[in-house]
TrEMBL record:
Molecular function GO labels: heme binding; iron ion binding; oxidoreductase activity, acting on paired donors, with incorporation or reduction of molecular oxygen, NAD(P)H as one donor, and incorporation of one atom of oxygen
Subcellular location: Membrane
Matching SUPFAM superfamilies: Cytochrome P450
Membrane topology, record value: Single-pass membrane protein
Identification of the protein by name: Cytochrome P450
InterPro entries (UniProt xref): Cyt_P450 (IPR001128), Cyt_P450_CS (IPR017972), Cyt_P450_E_grp-I (IPR002401), Cyt_P450_sf (IPR036396), Plant_metabolite_P450s (IPR051103)
Pfam families (alphabetical): p450
GO cellular component, one term: membrane
Length: 496
């Protein structure tokens, strides 16, 4: 009798297990290429990754596809409509998490920084702080002097370099370090107040650059966690060392602010605002949270904006007709030999279109920042399980011939007529979209407009600028831009 009961129990158990498995098997996953055991599809990710993902999507004939990256599941989306569906009103919340990665564990203060924090109250608090204290219309107005001073300092630096090396002739100039210096100085002033260009500033600029280069390398241990035990390539050791150096510098900034509280020149810095909040809400604004926010603003804003400026200049050099049209617009706006002001840029639609077209073809975050799902869901007819990573291939979407006319061509005019809603997403969409978009656009407009207004530009050796994309998270140029440049008389008239 008991035996019969046990047999019935086992049979029942097997039936339930079978039913559960067959239910699981029925999961409708997006199409997927053939993979290997253990590594899955890792071998298919070739640099530049956004290109290899676009090619995979074409080979599979699907705008949504599934990859197994070692032990991680990932979904890749390569069309505007699919991106909209994954990040639409209802699904946006589900995909508003970020994947956990070793780098954000160390450098991101255990994933508490705004760009890596899971979706929830802590992340919302940090975003609210950013929206109110850095990126609101009033704060952007307040920081306009910083942008004007730093852009003028850039013009002065270039002018002096030209005068010392060639007088009135065209001089060869490597733009990248100058543009990177500009964007770093602007953000550093917003965060910490105006600083002299001393050894310490140079050191932290290098550290931020190093940290950025580090974050551009995908760490294989994040996909095959067993490798973390060995750290065969020294990645984890390097990340820890770098994050400890960065942390020391960030702590120094916070301590200096604490010591100098009340000084008028520090009144409006981001660190001052955060220290005030620390007094009223110490549990939410610890030193680690403050340091993390400072670091994220420097990391997220410096390279992205500088790289975009470099691509914009490269595009203009390869399209002299666009450069000429832009120069004419700028000269019409700032008449009487006056330097371009931020308030003028609103009257320069062509300048805005040149920047938009640059960001369309060369988005500084071609795969956005990876999202991760917090619950099982059904999207675009597919079953997506909790914890799946989501890569939105903005680069592919913005060059998709099904939705863009002549997509590979650099034509700023397209933004006058073509609607770009849904298919243009260089700053992302949804809750996790870039909070720094407004600031970035102001910096890009004033800096690019001023460079074109104040100098004549030519290609080096009259050879077309190489537009290949290099390795790295922000899609840098494979070959840094070298251009020939000559000061215009407007620079002599104004006191820089
Ligand atoms: C996130 C693009 C400049 C701060 C992002 C994302 C993109 C992006 C695509 C991810 C969106 C997503 O996951 O859906 C850009 C581009 C820039 C730029 C193209 C310049 C041309 C800036 C600047 C700042 C900034 C100047 C700050 C000063 C951030 C932060 C996040 C972010 C904090 C993380 C948001 C979160 O996870 O909640 N950016 N960005 N970005 N960006 Fe930007």
């Amino acid at each position: 009798m008991i035996d019969l009961f046990i047999l019935a129990l086992i049979a029942g158990f097997i039936t339930v297990a079978y039913l559960l498995r067959s239910k699981q098997k029925k999961k409708n996953l997006p199409p997927s290429p053939l993979g290997f055991p253990v590594i899955g599809h890792l071998h298919l990710l070739k640099e530049p990754v956004h290109r290899s993902l676009r090619d995979l999507s074409r080979n599979l004939g699907s705008d949504v596809f599934f990859l197994r990256l070692g032990s991680r599941r990932a979904v890749v989306v390569t069309s505007a409509s699919a991106a909209e569906e994954f990040l639409s009103q209802e699904n946006d919340v589900i995909f508003a998490n970020r994947p956990l990665a070793s780098l954000t564990e160390f450098m991101g203060y255990n994933c508490t920084i705004v760009s890596a924090a899971p979706y929830g109250e802590h992340w919302r608090r940090l975003r609210r702080f950013c929206s109110i204290k850095i990126f609101s219309a009033a704060c952007l107005r307040d920081s306009s002097d910083i942008r004007r001073d730093e852009v003028r300092a850039l013009l002065r630096r270039i002018h002096v370099e030209l005068v010392t090396s060639g007088g009135n002739d065209f001089v060869r100039l490597k733009l990248q370090p100058l543009l990177y210096g500009l964007t770093f100085n602007i953000l550093m002033s917003i965060v910490d107040g105006k600083r002299e260009e001393d050894d310490e500033t140079k050191e932290v600029r290098e550290l931020i650059r190093e940290a950025f280069e580090f974050s551009g390398v995908s760490y294989v241990g994040d996909f095959l966690p067993i490798l973390k035990l060995f750290d065969h390539d020294g990645y984890l050791k390097g990340a820890k060392k770098l994050s400890s150096k960065l942390d020391k510098f960030m702590q120094k900034l916070v301590d200096e602010h604490r010591r100098n509280r009340g000084k008028t020149e520090l009144e409006k810095t981001m660190i001052t605002h955060l220290l005030s909040l620390q007094e009223s809400e110490p549990e939410h604004y610890t030193d680690d949270i403050i340091k993390g926010l400072v670091q994220v603003i420097l990391l997220a804003g410096t390279d992205t904006t500088a790289v975009t400026l470099e691509w914009a200049m490269a595009n203009l050099l390869n399209h002299p007709e666009v450069l000429m049209k832009l120069k004419t617009e700028l000269n019409n706006v700032s008449v009487e030999g006056r330097l371009l002001e931020e308030s003028d840029t609103g009257k320069c639609p062509y300048l805005t279109n040149v920047i938009s077209e640059t960001l369309r073809l060369y988005p500084a975050a071609p795969l956005l920042v990876p999202h991760a799902s917090s619950a099982d869901s059904e999207v675009a007819g597919f079953d997506i399980s909790r914890g799946t990573w989501l890569f939105v291939n903005a680069w592919a979407i913005q060059r998709d011939p099904r939705v863009w006319d002549d997509p590979e061509a650099f034509k700023p005019e397209r933004f006058e007529s073509e609607t770009h809603r849904g298919k243009y997403l260089p700053f992302g969409i949804g809750r996790r979209a870039c909070p720094g978009m407004g600031l970035a656009q102001l910096v890009l407009s004033l800096a690019l407009g001023s460079l074109i207004q104040c100098f004549d530009w030519e290609r080096d050796n009259d050879v077309a600028v190489d537009m290949s994309e290099g390795r790295g998270i922000t899609m840098p140029k494979a070959v840094p831009l070298v251009a020939k440049c000559k000061s215009l008389p407007i620079l002599d008239k104004v006191v820089l």
